[in-house]
Amino acid sequence: MIDLHTHSTFSDGSLTPEELAAQAAEIGLRAVALTDHDCTDGVPRFLAACAARGVAAFAGVEISADVPRGTLHVLGYGIAPGHPELEATLARIRQGREIRNREILRRLQGLGLDLSWEEVASRAGEDVVGRPHFAQALQARGYVASKDEAFERYLAKGKPAYVDRLRLTPEASIAAIRAAGGLAALAHPFTLELQGAALRAALAEWRAQGLEGLEAYYPEHSPEQTRLYLELARELDLAPTGGSDFHGAANPAVHLGRGFGQLCVPDELAEELQRRLRARA
Predict the structure, then answer these.
(1) pLDDT in tens, the chain (281 residues)
(2) Number of H helices, E strands in the chain
(3) Whether domain 2-90+170-280 has CATH 2.30.30.100
(4) Where in the chain is the domain with CATH 1.10.150.650?
(5) Which CATH class is domain 95-155?
(6) In the chain, where does the domain assigned CATH 3.20.20.140 lie?
(7) How far apart are CA 222 and CA 227, in angstroms?
(8) 195 exposed, middle or buried (CB, 10 Å; 0-12, 13-18, 19+)?
């Protein structure tokens, strides 16, 4: 069992890189990737902790890209932590997040919700603050009963406190990952809201731009979707990947390695990923 999509306190997860590695070893994961949003600062600690526990680890990242509809996230595997070009790109994205966060706070306050920046920032383990941290702060204040309610009432796209932020194009996201020696893979493709020929055409376009992987196994994928994504991966010569999108206490229904309980990402996907990365090196 492996998990190639996880988050730590360096983005919107609740476990430190060391705690994540310890839990991966405890449940018997053979390989795990840390893919924090727009940040690789936790990767060196994660790699060291996994090595100490005998768990194969991938240095990763997750970048949100701009698309006309739906949501597109690009996962990067095998990146070189601290690579200057990638780090400069991620710093620019995080700066956009900071601008967005201040505007979200202003809008929430304008709706009569007495919330301070310190309350929100205290929910983040490290420096990257995102909408889940606003949701946690709103819940702690009693304004909402759950994270889901916070998004449904205030933070989701189209809701009164939603603010868009700087996003790269898909091509730029892929290029930034490849520049750092990484393999770029499309995360949870169902969020693109594309079907049939339109989905295949989009994947083929990004494949031509350097996309090399497709997340076929994911907690919210139906068996039919998983089969479709595996077929598209074979057809377009994309490495199939999979993971739980684990965040810890921020989303307690999703468990490391198992998702909602039924997820089982085959070990050979990590082996194929390693093979492709070695071939590039």
Answers:
(1) 999 999 999 988 999 999 999 999 999 999 999 999 999 999 999 999 999 999 999 999 999 998 988 889 999 999 998 999 999 999 998 888 888 889 999 999 999 999 998 888 888 766 678 888 899 899 999 999 998 899 999 998 889 999 887 789 999 999 999 999 999 999 999 999 999 999 999 999 999 999 999 999 999 999 999 999 999 999 999 999 999 999 998 889 999 999 999 999 999 999 999 999 998 76
(2) 10, 7
(3) no
(4) 95-155
(5) mainly alpha
(6) 2-90+170-280
(7) 9
(8) exposed
